[in-house]
Amino acid sequence: MYFLLGNLSFLDIWFASFATPKMIRDFLSDRKLISFGGCMAQIFFLHFIGGAEMVLLVSMAYDRYVAICKPLHYMTMMNRQTCIGLVLVSWVIGFVHSISQVAFTVNLPYCSPNEVDSFFCDLPLVIKLACMDTYVLGILMISDSGLLSMSCFLLLLISYTAILITVRQHAPGGASKALSTCSAHIMVVTLFFGPCIFIYVWPFSRFSVDKLLSVFYTIFTPLLNPLIYTLRNKEMKISMKKLRNQRVTFH
Predict the structure, then answer these.
(1) Band (87; pLDDT cuts 50, 70, 90)
(2) 1-249: CATH superfamily
């Protein structure tokens, strides 16, 4: 669990950093400019890190399923090699997903206007700047980003449904305990997938709230993840309490 959490934190650091420095600079400047290469780089890292994190969250749900439903087999099923394999799979899927998005975007014919109505470059807004009908491109984007988001989200729902059903059948009153155990992960999944599904599954209708959602899931959600897991994890709270007591005793 902690190996997967460490990788999630690593992805969150990159996810909160790929566009934030440029965004802060633009807030402090009258001229908000970005090169074409920089725009493509933002799209690449957004979908690379985002896709990898989606798959990693599914791996973490599988980890919780094994821990709760098959506790005697946990050390065998979730050994070091399995965890490394799950992390590598998440990175590979994220890379393939991102490359497939950038490949058809970088070669599009672009002309004026050249303004992206957002705080950073994202696929639904950039392809609208192309000098061609983008309806088919929108369908391709839904087939890629929307399909990845929805499939991972459905796998997560299936995983937690299986956990609750299994615990409820074998332990009276255990469903609430299992829900409490998985509540941190469920909160993170909701915060991450909610904006993603709203933006990438319905990309044809644009709302001003999309800007807020984009900033929320690229900056605030990665910053909230460590806090959520820390406050909802019993071992982490015990360790922090011991550390605080040691500092108080030292002083």
Answers:
(1) very high
(2) Rhodopsin 7-helix transmembrane proteins (1.20.1070.10)
